[in-house]
Amino acid sequence: MKKIGIKRSYLAMPYTVYLMLFIFIPMLFIIYFSFVDSKGGFTFDNIVKVLTSSESIGTFLLSIFYGAITTGICFLLGYPVAYILSQKRFKMKNIIIVLFILPMWVNFMIRTLALEYLFESLNITLGAGTAMFGLVYDFLPFMILPIYTTLLKIDKNLIEASEDLGANPKTVLFKTILPLSVPGIISGALMVFMPSITAYAITETLSDGTFNLIGNLINMSFFNNKGYSSALAIVMLVLIFISMMISYKFNDKSELQGGGLW
Amino acid sequence: MVNGETLKKNAAVKPAPTAVEAEFYKKRKLNYYFGRSYVYLLLLLIYVPIIMIVIYSFSKGSGFQSFRLSFDNIKELFTLGSIDAREMLTALKNTLTIGVATAFFSTFFGTLGAVGINSMKKKGRNALLNASNIPIFSADIVIGIALMLLFANLNITKGFATITISQTAVIAPYVMLSVLPRIKQMNMSVYEAALDLGASPLKAFGKVIIPEIMPGMLSGFILAFTLSMDDFVIAQYTKNNSFQTLSTYVYTKIAGKGGLSGALKPLSALIFFTVLAVLLIYNFKKSQDSKKQIKK
After folding, report:
1. What's the ipTM?
2. How far apart are alpha carbons A150 and A146 in whole angstroms?
3. Measured on CA atoms in the order B55, B60, B65, B69, is the torsion positive or negative?
4. pLDDT tens column, A96-154
5. CB atoms closer than 10 angstroms to residue A249
């Protein structure tokens, strides 16, 4: 029996090796290139530039600010949807969930293009506001789905217990359901925040190039200064690891880590 | 948590529940209808751009400016009457081929990963699960740049293969996470029984585990295909200049202003309705099946 168990865990080898080869090793390349100048010599210039130039610091602060707002809006719009859909009496929930994902099948560049023309026909000037609208529009499903799956998994007895103990519906929502759905909210927030500050095609198209977040900066600088771009990407890597730590902290209690995001 | 007053109120209510309860249910029903209309309204809002795409399929020109009824775009799509339309169709073909290949490889690696992770000891399992979270929580642009640097330094020609490899790296963890819950639910002693009865591990895997986790694999496959179709950043960084997927094609054409084929609109609408029909049928069947199961 034991031998079989060990053997079965070997099945994860191809997956592990694949992630090693095409996620971790490439990331080492980013680190390497951020310490190399255009002639191939060792340099700290790129890192220094990222940490001191007003361009990169400003863009980072702006990204965190707008990313937080985008995530917040997605949460405010998405949580009620997830909550309503998770209720037992909602019969068509499967189809509604599918309808929220379905727009992904119309290529997002085409949807973004349609949005751009929509704003133009409504005489709305393209800028930060329209870009944020596009981000919320595109990433809302990533907020709804994790919260929805978490809500479905909540033990209904806990809700009934709090009702029986005299909590009114509002109290049940804020003191029982909301705290229990925190893992879903966290993974939803992380899945919206990162993409929203790096989806340069959306912000570029919907702001006519006037609203630049960190993704735009990395993209624009990549072709003339790989080192600077890589150094910027390293800061992103740090952000990614912070977000993973956050997700780990909120997830470790439930065995099924991040399971069934979809 | 519970204050005395509400408790008292509740106790007072109990002897004569009907009137208050009726009020409560009425309110709840109202809330429910209010909530439902909110969901529908939000859905409607989300579908505005898509409705626009469908409507403007029947309008002149490639954009969404003033509506002028014409079937030119549709004709262009079906006759491939322009270079732009043919370019677009090539981009679509590339997108679909990459989508199928990525979905296939992601399902392969993701499923094996899930089966393996499930039988790992806690430490290794946590490490691998956390590693799997990196591509999910990561920014595509970081992975895109990283892979571009990798391919460039190994002198690998970028194109179909590099895009598929790269997308698989990002998407396989999603599949793994959609298969994992299925494996957790399944009873591994059936697998071990098969081994005891003389089946080879490979045969037992194919005959016992695979059928059990098929639903997870299937939804993982669909998810992988969807994510691949919607990808832009990774494809943009791991492709060569002459190779286009649908997203990079549209992006390049917008950046270059003009030259965007009008057939793009009816094509998008067509894809959308095809997928809508397939998914509706699939979900309808699934809910029918689960109803049958409940009856049993």
Report:
1. 0.85
2. 6
3. negative
4. 888 888 888 788 888 888 888 888 888 888 888 999 999 999 999 989 998 998 898 88
5. 11
Kindly identify which residue of chain B lies nearest to residue A104, measuring between CA atoms: B230
Number of domains in chain A: 1
Identity of the amino acid at A6: I
pLDDT at A1 over 60: no
Residue A188 contacts B where some CB pair is shorter than 8 Å? no
Q: Smallest CA–CA separation between A56 and chain B, in Å? A: 16
Distances in Å between the Cα of B267 and the Cα atoms of A107, B46, B60, B86, B261 are: 11, 19, 15, 12, 10
User: Tokens for B95?
Assistant: 């997108």
Q: Which chain A residue is nearest to residue B174, measuring alpha carbons?
A: A261
CA distance B115 to B108: 11
pLDDT tens digits along B161-194:
999 999 999 999 999 988 998 888 888 888 888 8
CATH number of the CATH domain containing A105: 1.10.3720.10
Q: What is the dihedral of CA A190, A60, B249, A127, to 10 degrees?
A: 100
Task: Give the residue from chain A lying closest to B146, CA to CA.
Answer: A26
A213, amino acid identity: L
What distance in Å separates the CA atoms of residue A137 and residue A114, rounded to the nearest whole number? Answer: 12
Residue A48 C-alpha from the chain's centroid? 28
B7 interaction partners in chain A (CB closer than 8 Å):
165-166
A228 alpha carbon, distance to own chain's centre: 24
Asked if the structure places residue A204 within a domain, the reply is yes
Q: Is residue B233 within 8 Å of B140, Cβ to Cβ?
A: yes
| One-character DSSP codes across B189-216 | HHHHHHHHTT--HHHHIIIIIHHHHHHH
Q: Which of A1, A18, A162 to mutate to test the interface with B (most CBs of B within 10 A)?
A: A18
Nearest to A103 among B50, B140, B279 (CB): B50
Size of interface A-B (CB pairs under 8 A): 290
Which residues in chain A have Cβ-Cβ distances shorter than 8 Å to B173?
Answer: 19
Segments forming the whole domain that contains residue A61 = 56-251
- The domain segmentation of chain B, as residue ranges, is 9-56, 92-259
CATH class of the structural domain B92-259: mainly alpha
In 3D space, the residue among A134, A137, A116, A132 whose CA is nearest the CA of residue A66 turns out to be A132
Residue A81 scores a pLDDT above 80: yes
With an 8 Å Cβ cutoff, is A111 touching chain B?
yes
Residue A68 placed within a domain:
yes
Judge whether B174 and B266 are in contact, CB under 8 Å: no
